[in-house]
Amino acid sequence: MDASDLKAILESHKQWLDSDGETGERADLRWADLHGADLHGADLHGADLRGARLCGADLRDADLYGADLYGADLRDADLRGADLRGANLDYSCWPLWRGSNRVKVDAKIAAQLAAHFCALDCDDPAYLAAREAVLEFAKTSHRANKLGLK
User: Fold this and answer.
1) CATH T-level assignment (fold) for domain 27-105
2) Which residues have a Cβ under 8 Å from the Cβ of 102 and sit 6 or more positions away?
């Protein structure tokens, strides 16, 4: 997606947010190729990013509250300080590097991450102790059954 198109979508989305949906339009970035996009500090609250290619995107301090990121490619995305509370991260990939430091999440996302952690096959005593410590919380995840935790 070219930068001017993205800018127009973000401006319309801001109008939509500021007017409670009266003007502007909710950002529809489904399946958009935003690889490497500079979205630092962007207001994507409630945006539709299902299946978006966000690998390598700069999403630092972005407002993704309530955004739909189902199946989004977040490999190498920089999410430091981003607000993902209420976001749908099902079938997306979580960056396992410093790019996910200080990400704001809610209990649903935290439980989902904990459930994936608890579903690992590791017999190391330190892991087993950590798994036991978070297992009950992990079982509250909406994905716990599919991960074999219930």
Assistant:
1) Pectate Lyase C-like (2.160.20)
2) 80, 81
